Amino acid sequence: MAIRIIEEGLQTTIQDLGRFGFQSLGFSTNGAIDSKAMRLANILLGNDDNEAVIEMSFIGPSISFESDMVIALTGANMSPKINGKPVLMNKVLAVHAGDSLQLRTGRNGLHTYLSVKGGFNIPPFLNSKSTALNVQVGGYEGRTLKAGDIIPIHTPIKSSNFNWGLGSTIVRYLNMEKPVIHFIEGQQYHWFTDKSIKDFESEIFYTTTQSNRMGYRLTGAKLKLKTKQNLITEATTFGTIQVPANGQPIVLMADSQPTGGYPKIGQVIQADIPKLSQLLPSQGFIFKKCSLEEAQALLYKKEQELNSLRAATQLKWEEWNVCTPSI
Asked: Where are the transmembrane segments (predicted)?
């Protein structure tokens, strides 16, 4: 009742929605960098949204299944193959004991998520199964998954045929050529020159290859302060846009520190963090300011979409349970 890592990916970890309530003690929230894709993987299988998944970043691993189970793959398309045959993303997939899954480089994003029906049998640390790489706790021994690792699951399920998955609309954020990333004003927004503010909201920015789970370093228009000012370290969060002395913004991500001392020009809205998290370095994007009310409306719309999908998949699983009970 487990999966085995056969070949390592570039960065493969166990993640859930994050570790909350401990930032005052110095712990990052951690969690899936694309929470939407991670939740979709669980919704497809009728799992709780917060059930731990495997997050595979940049280049995927190869995995073997040591029992029959049901899985789903969401997020970036890493050209998945089971026993050498291509399979679809965003679908419910049945696998047999002895089957192997191969994943490669993401074609339309950076992060792919593998969920298992019933979830992984991993103990939580501080109320979360997420991996905290910087302090080596949580997840699987607090580290990335390596060849030979065996990840136990809760529930083996006899293989069956499934014919449902996600529609293209709900994952369209993965295929935008020049996406718009909305933000609300940061605490030091008005510290920046008028030209810098104009450039920030009109020029194209790119993520760089120096980006990671702690922060996405951007390249684009150089942002300048009106006058040099000292800033006392303040609280930060996932999506905070800091501007260091070189004028090139950094967007803090899931493994970011709880505080920071750089001026904050903005905060990426929660609804757009998944979109930002999947951007390739060659993929330009534009920042657009919005109000708190607009940010809340966009988040509400996103949650409505997920709630509708959850209700539909729950009905599918209820029908399946009547015909094919799990073992």
From this structure: none
